[in-house]
Design a protein that fits this description.
The structure holds two protein chains of two kinds.
Chain A (H helix, E strand, L loop, with lengths): L4 E7 L8 H7 L5 E4 L4 H13 L9 H15 L2 E4 L6 H14 L6 E6 L7 H6 L20 E6 L4 H8 L4 E4 L4 H13 L6 H14 L27 E4 L5 E4 L10 H8 L9 E2 L4 E3 L4 E4 L5 E4 L2 E3 L4 E21 L3 H18 L6 E7 L17 E10 L2 H8 L5 H4 L4 E2 L9 E12 L6 E6 L1
Parallel strand pairs in A: 1-2, 2-3, 3-6, 4-6
Antiparallel strand pairs in A: 1-7, 4-19, 5-14, 7-8, 8-12, 9-10, 10-13, 11-12, 14-16, 14-17, 14-18, 15-16
Helix pairs in contact in A: 1-3, 3-4, 6-7, 7-8
Chain B lengths: L1 E3 H4 E8 L2 E8 L5 H7 L2 H7 L8 E6 L4 E6 L20 H6 L2 E3 L10
Antiparallel strand pairs in B: 1-6, 2-3, 3-5, 4-5
Classes of the chains: A alpha+beta, B alpha+beta.
């Protein structure tokens, strides 16, 4: 058994810093590179892409990235774990294998975790008595059954561990929890059984710290943001895990950013509910038992985490279409910038009323004044400029489209000293809403598929 | 003594659907009992009354010197439905740090 393993966060979301994965595998020793690509809304986008082209539906950035990194990964024996497979892990693996072949790679084993995508078996599951009602409101699924865009079960670390046991160099999953990506290599390397609840909880907490990339290592740090050195070259976080269940959060030497108890705490409290009940498919982690300790420069020791047995259920995330929005902006300058922007807002609302258009909501904000804290913003005194931002939402696409044609006319038919209409007419974009549900674990079985050269 | 929370706390906020969460962290362990005493769910609900449509829940993390708040119906529908510039509530932690508390205790403030 290794003395410890180093798990590096390479992406905190799809669209994160492109140089981070390479820095993580070249600027110091690591054993695993984990990359989280999936937000809830991403699944519905990927499902749409797959509908248009059955060879798509995964995080496409992953393929050129693997092309760039494969030789280094194989040479240094760094394994990759990512949920970038989206709704089409098979196609993702095929694309990576094509790139590997072009690079002259002789031997590569990709482990796929599939079975999370239950879009085609929804009706069968319901016939079996799994109602998939909304776990928050209790509403039956019938309300949105016809509008479903994507439905995915959140799997945990278990199937990834199985893929690693079967010798995968790269594990590509569909919808897997962000925390499972980091927990899995610890379970695999240290032979942690699936009921070692405290250890699983520690790995889960480490996963939560890593899942948003540099947010744990100095990015978006509110305590003292000016004290964070060299954010231009920020080092992404690394979890150095030990068999006894202790983990040190750190980053590579010589990189920018900061790992301190304060940066780690900010990530720990990010997007959590009841801290004593952080529920994943692997365990329930109790965040009120986390102990942090300084362990050298840019090193924070994480220990003492208590875990409870996992629940009987998987969470299912279903997305469905729910109307359209559009947002338009115009910039008004001194003098009386805010008054002009407010007058323009009144005018456009009057015109929308005159046109007989109805919207579920019309929302106005003034960027530079109140778009962040709403009515908590202090009064604005003689600003140089204010950006009017008007948004509308409706089930009627044509009404939203028509709204888009009402922004530009304000330039010549409204208050003066107005600019900032370079982006063109605001276009309707589809609203994607989510339907959270629970599904007993016995209803679906994760599957491992191996593809290799 | 009136203290604006930003003097003694830092924090981070995010979203889960139409619910925003704000983690409020004491800058020193000695400040935690103060925020636990004065930054109640009721005070936070009152502070955000014009923004938050639903209830405010509070959870304690004494081990981190932190409180976690859940603000329900707080993001104009949340996700892609919200028409707000800050649809994910990323700046709500800063909005909470604006809040002032009136403390009876004598406390040693960090340098400004």
């Amino acid at each position: 058994m290794k003395e410890n393993i180093r798990i590096a966060s390479g992406q905190g979301f799809w669209g994160d810093l492109l140089t981070a994965p390479r820095d993580q595998v070249t600027r110091g020793p690591v054993d695993y590179l984990v990359m989280d690509y999936l937000a809830e809304v991403t699944m519905s986008i990927l499902q749409k892409q797959k509908r248009k082209d059955p060879n798509l539906g995964y995080a496409r950035d992953l393929v050129p990235l693997m092309g760039e990194l494969l030789p280094i990964l194989l040479e240094r024996k760094v394994k990759v774990i990512t949920n970038g497979g989206g709704v089409n892990p098979e196609a993702c693996a095929d694309a990576i294998l094509r790139v590997a072949r072009q690079l002259g790679v002789r031997k590569l084993r990709i482990g796929l975790v599939v079975g999370d995508n239950i879009l085609d078996s929804i009706d069968k599951l319901r016939a079996q008595g799994f109602d998939l009602k909304n776990m928050e409101t209790g509403e039956p699924l019938d309300a949105i059954r016809d509008r479903l865009e994507s439905t995915n079960v959140y799997f945990g670390a278990g199937p990834i561990v199985e893929a690693l046991r079967r010798g995968a160099d790269i594990v590509v999953t569909g919808r897997t929890t962000d925390t499972g990506l980091t927990l899995a290599p610890m379970m695999f390397e240290f032979d942690w059984p699936p009921d070692a609840w405290d250890k699983l909880a520690t790995g889960t907490v480490a996963g939560h710290i890593l899942e948003c990339g540099a947010q744990a290592s100095g990015g978006n740090f509110s305590a003292d943001w000016t004290s964070v050195p060299d954010l231009a070259h920020v080092g992404f976080p690394i979890a150095e895990a030990y068999p006894n269940g202790e983990v040190v959060i750190t980053k590579h030497e010589g990189t920018g950013g900061l790992v301190s108890q304060a940066t780690v705490k900010e990530q720990l409290v990010y997007e959590i509910g009841d801290p004593a009940m952080y529920i994943t498919p692997d365990c329930i982690a109790d965040f009120t038992t986390i102990q942090l300790q300084d362990a050298g420069p840019n090193r924070v020791l994480l220990r003492g985490v208590r875990g409870k047995p996992a629940t009987e259920f998987y969470k299912v995330s279903m997305s469905y279409a729910e109307g359209f929005t559009a947002v338009g902006t115009l910039t008004y300058s001194w003098p009386e910038a805010l008054e002009k922007a407010k007058a323009a807002d009144t005018i456009i609302r009057q015109r929308l009323t005159d046109l007989g258009l109805s919207f579920d909501e019309i929302h106005t904000e003034f960027l530079g004044y109140n778009s962040s804290h709403g009515p908590l913003a202090p009064p604005l005194v003689d600003p140089n400029e204010v950006v009017l931002r008007v948004g509308v939402r409706s089930n009627d696409r044509s009404a939203v489209e028509r709204f888009g044609r009402e922004i530009a006319p304000l330039i010549l038919t409204g208050p003066p000293s107005v600019t900032g209409f370079a982006g063109g007419r605001p276009k309707p974009s589809e609203v994607i809403s989510f339907w959270p549900a629970l599904l007993p674990k016995r209803a679906v079985e994760p599957q491992i598929v191996i593809k290799e050269l | 003594m009136k203290i604006q929370l930003i003097r003694i706390c830092h924090g981070r906020s995010g979203d889960k659907g139409d619910t925003a969460n704000i983690g409020l962290i004491a800058r020193r362990s000695e400040y935690y009992p103060l925020i636990r005493k004065y930054v109640t769910a009721e005070r936070v609900k009152a502070h955000f009354q014009s923004i938050v449509g639903g209830s405010v829940e509070r959870f304690e993390l004494p081990n981190l010197g932190a409180l976690n708040f859940l603000l329900h119906n707080a993001l104009g529908g949340g996700g892609t439905k919200s028409l707000r510039n800050d649809a994910q509530g990323k700046t709500l932690a800063a909005a909470l740090l604006r809040m002032e508390i009136d403390v009876e205790e004598k406390i040693d403030l960090p340098p400004q």
